[in-house]
């Protein structure tokens, strides 16, 4: 913070998809060495913030937005040493570093989920959202995936459905479980200690779900072959998104990130919502950042 004006006020950001930006080792895939070599290009353009899309260890479902390890770099893009060099060089050039954080869901290959699906009694079972089938043997409610079809995937081994609001390979976390909140506190601190200047929070409005997981009110019929986005708009997002308790997550994160003067940017996309609902995420001054 400079005086009363935060460092991000009026800043220009540049988003980098690491895989396609610059290849530093000649294997045809962008990586941190390649990005680091070209940071001076961004500085000359007048960029202030470099926002890096997900680079974590991942099977690459949804282009890295299915994370298998939040505290490591996918080998395709380098390693933690290469990441540290990138941050150091960015700071030398006066650039701030913002990284994408994906807290709504993990990869189905994350160790947390591998534990959770072993049995109904596993200690990590409640880190995710599981329900018995509905009376007809199908999904437990009418929620739909943003990528098409029901927002539930059956796990045959345990006979229950788990919730992925996006791909089946992206099971949603249970943010009402204190252990999940504690785990993400540690993840934030891991990257803050490595010098990152901010986080862009993916699906920031979606973390917490209504605990009973009731059906969402339906506004229009869903027909075969309907595009996924149209099918999603056929329902009101009353119980799967934008629950009041999600604001508590960001108050908690502010207490951590304020120690580092860190930027918190939320992807908050609320269809047909009044501006006042979006404003809740920044209005009280102790949640997501605003200028």
Mind sketching the topology for me?
Layout: E1 13-16, H1 18-21, H2 32-37, H3 39-45, E2 49-52, E3 56-57, E4 69-73, H4 80-92, E5 96-101, H5 111-116, E6 130-131, E7 153-155, E8 160-162, H6 178-193, E9 198-201, H7 228-233, H8 246-257, E10 263-266, H9 275-279
Order of strands in the sheet with the most strands?
A: 1-2-5-9-10
Number of helices: 9
Can you give the helix content as a percent range? 25-40%
Instruction: Name the shape in a single word.
Output: globular
Intertermini distance: 11 Å
The mean pLDDT is: 96
- List unreliable stretches of 5+ residues: none
Structural class label = alpha/beta
What is the number of beta strands?
Answer: 10
Q: How many whole angstroms does the radius of gyration measure?
A: 20 Å
Report the portion of residues in β strands: 5-15%
Name the helix and strand elements from N-terminus to C-terminus, one letter apiece. EHHHEEEHEHEEEHEHHEH
Largest sheet: 5 strands, parallel
């Amino acid at each position: 913070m400079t005086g009363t004006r935060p460092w991000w006020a009026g800043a220009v950001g540049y988003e980098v998809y690491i895989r396609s930006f610059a290849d530093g080792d000649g294997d045809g895939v962008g990586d941190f060495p390649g990005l680091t070599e070209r940071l001076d290009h961004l500085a000359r353009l007048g960029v202030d913030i470099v926002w890096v899309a997900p680079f974590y260890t991942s099977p690459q479902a949804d282009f890295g937005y299915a994370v298998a390890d939040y505290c490591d770099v996918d080998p395709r893009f380098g390693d933690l040493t290469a990441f540290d060099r990138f941050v150091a060089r960015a700071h030398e050039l006066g650039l701030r570093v913002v990284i994408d954080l994906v807290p709504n869901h993990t990869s189905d290959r994350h160790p947390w989920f591998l534990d959770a699906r072993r049995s109904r009694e596993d200690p990590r079972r409640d880190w995710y959202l599981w329900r018995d089938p509905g009376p007809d043997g199908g999904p437990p409610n009418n929620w739909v995936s943003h990528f098409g079809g029901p927002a539930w995937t059956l796990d045959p081994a345990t006979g229950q459905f788990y919730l992925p609001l996006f791909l089946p390979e992206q099971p949603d976390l249970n943010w009402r479980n204190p252990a999940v909140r504690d785990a993400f506190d540690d993840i934030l601190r891991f990257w803050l200690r490595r010098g990152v200047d901010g986080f862009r929070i993916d699906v920031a409005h979606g973390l917490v779900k209504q605990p009973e997981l009731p059906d969402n009110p339906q506004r229009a019929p869903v027909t075969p072959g309907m595009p996924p986005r149209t099918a999603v708009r056929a329902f009101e997002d009353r119980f799967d998104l934008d629950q009041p308790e999600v604001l508590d997550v960001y108050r908690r994160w502010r207490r951590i990130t304020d120690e580092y003067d860190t930027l918190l940017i939320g992807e908050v996309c609320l269809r047909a919502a009044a501006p006042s609902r979006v404003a809740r995420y920044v209005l009280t001054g102790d949640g997501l950042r605003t200028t």
